[in-house]
Design goal:
It is built from 13 helices and 9 strands. The protein is α/β, with parallel strands linked by helices. The chain starts with 6 loop residues before the first helix and ends with a helix.
């Protein structure tokens, strides 16, 4: 979710009196329609299906979390978000790609974009072609492209995959529902990919946050509906986890939005979720409890969630992943707390 998801909008801290004071206008506009999921937290009204999944114990939230990145640059934050490193541009592979290598999962990753995102780099073969205009090049053109990229191993591999694998050949509209429908079909194919990455932007809500979050969160909600429908029985073995580079300021700004912050929320769904819960060590919203006096304080390294998610999906020891993917960094084992094992 590029741009910096406002975790306090998606999952408002309704039990914290300070929250309503910080968000008098923003929260007041939709507060009556919030889905109350506990005494302390609610869900944004546009997360309607997520709320249904939550009630079915197939959706959950990890709140007050972020990567180790504590500055507020989109580019730097997204690099750390995808690499899983401690600082921007220090790592050339992605935590998901490294996890696939550790689990010996090759040729089974799909990302609906070009070029291959940093997140998936690390596994040897991944099919990442989605034609934005709904068409694909003819074989003759593909041959020329392969020749043109003969000195670029990564791009040449992508072009060869396009030519070789019919799973790449998707004809449809470039919208989230069509992408989700197509992705669900190929993920449930035993011979197809078992990892997919969606790239959704628009979460940089400096102004007009009410409208933008309504639109963005509804799009995410629709993605869940379509994926579950398209996956069918495979949904019970599926896990969806969101990534975002940082959160937003706790206090609204003068443009009816929020600025770049730190702490945020991870939204998760699928049949591998242990139960509907908001998993958090809530830091509080008093000024002295905020990061630099302005942002939600992260109390949990988001990489611990990613590590646990890979452990469950790839059926591999979380400690091995922690060693091989995250350089033995001090990450708690959340596997049994968050997911079915």
């Amino acid at each position: 979710l590029r741009g910096g998801l406002d975790g306090l909008s998606a999952v408002p801290a309704i039990g914290d009196k300070k929250f309503k004071k910080y968000r008098k206008n923003l929260y007041g506009e939709y507060s009556k329609d919030v889905f109350k999921i506990s005494a302390d937290f609610g869900l944004h009204p546009r997360l309607e299906y997520f709320n249904i999944l939550y009630g079915r114990n197939e959706a959950a939230v990890v709140h007050a979390t972020n990567t180790p990145y504590v500055d507020r640059s989109h580019f730097d934050g997204q690099d750390v978000m995808m690499s899983g490193g401690l600082r921007p541009y220090a790592v050339k592979t992605g935590w998901l790609g490294r996890g696939m290598v550790t689990a010996n999962i090759m040729e089974v990753g799909l990302t609906l974009s070009l070029p291959m995102p940093l997140l998936l780099r690390g596994a040897e073969q991944k099919d990442n072609y989605f034609p934005a205009n709904g068409t694909i090049p003819e074989d003759e053109i593909l041959e020329k492209l392969i020749s043109a990229y003969r000195n670029d191993d990564d791009m040449r591999m992508v072009m060869e995959n396009i030519r070789r694998r019919p799973v790449s050949r998707f004809y449809g509209e470039n919208d989230t529902r069509d992408l989700a429908k197509h992705t669900g079909r190929i993920l449930k194919d035993e011979l197809g990919p078992n990892v997919a990455v969606f790239d959704m932007d628009g979460f940089d809500t400096h102004a007009g946050q009410l409208y933008n979050n309504n639109k963005n969160l509804e799009e995410f909600d629709n993605l869940l509906i379509t994926l579950e429908d398209s996956l069918g029985d495979a949904w019970k073995n599926t896990l969806i986890v969101t990534l975002t580079e940082f959160g937003r300021t706790v206090k609204q700004n003068g443009g009816q939005g929020t600025d770049h912050g730190i702490g945020t929320a991870i939204l998760m769904a699928g049949g591998l979720i242990k139960k509907g819960q908001v998993y958090t060590d809530w830091p509080g919203l008093k000024k002295k409890q905020l990061f630099e006096g302005r942002d939600l304080m992260p109390t949990l390294d988001a990489r611990a969630v990613y590590n646990a998610a890979m452990s469950v999906c790839f059926d591999i020891d979380p400690e091995q992943l922690r060693r091989d993917v995250f350089w033995k960094d001090d990450l708690p084992n959340l596997t049994e707390s968050l997911f079915k094992v």
